[in-house]
């Protein structure tokens, strides 16, 4: 896979899409679950953790779903569907993140279809990897559940 961060140096992208580079310290919350925004985030340096809230206010747990590092990105789902964020993102280390306007990025992909194809291909390949990882996790959880509850397998 090619790193989408190279877009930040593309003259057409720079002219068409607003983005800012933001620095975060460890434990800073970069993105909150259920926040509404279409921004996409590119990790320029450092590591982040993707988490989701399980439980209520009293017994709230934030299990880590994934760790991402330099060259990775997050927030692409909301860019496409405009739905609230499905997870929280927290800095694990000192980070530099490029916050990219998602709606302008979509317009950029339409205006420059050859570059847009490259972007969509990279987004799609990233989603394929994440779906495969989630399939393995789901299978593992189901196998553990079935083995603990002595439920016969079909």
From TrEMBL:
Gene3D superfamilies tied to this protein: Jelly Rolls
Give one GO term, molecular function aspect.
voltage-gated potassium channel activity
Gene Ontology CC annotation, any one: plasma membrane
Known Pfam families for this protein? Answer: cNMP_binding
Task: Identify the PROSITE patterns for this entry.
Answer: CNMP_BINDING_2 (PS00889), CNMP_BINDING_3 (PS50042)
GO biological process entries: regulation of membrane potential
- The Cyclic nucleotide-binding domain, residue ranges: 24-101
This protein's name: Cyclic nucleotide-binding domain-containing protein
Natural source organism: Methylovulum psychrotolerans
């Amino acid at each position: 896979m090619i790193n989408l961060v190279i877009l930040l140096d593309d003259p057409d992208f720079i002219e068409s899409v607003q983005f800012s580079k933001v620095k975060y310290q460890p434990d800073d919350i970069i993105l909150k679950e259920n926040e509404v925004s279409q921004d996409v985030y590119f990790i320029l340096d450092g590591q982040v953790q993707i988490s989701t809230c399980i439980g209520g206010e009293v017994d709230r747990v934030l299990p880590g779903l994934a760790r991402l590092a330099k060259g990775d990105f997050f927030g692409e789902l909301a860019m496409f569907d405009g739905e609230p964020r499905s997870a929280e993102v927290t800095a694990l280390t000192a980070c530099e993140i490029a916050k990219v306007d998602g709606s302008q990025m979509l317009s950029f992909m339409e205006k420059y279809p050859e570059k847009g194809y490259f972007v969509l291909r990279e987004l799609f390949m990233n989603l394929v990897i994440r779906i495969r990882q989630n399939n393995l996790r789901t299978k593992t959880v189901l196998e553990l559940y079935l083995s603990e509850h002595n439920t016969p397998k079909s």
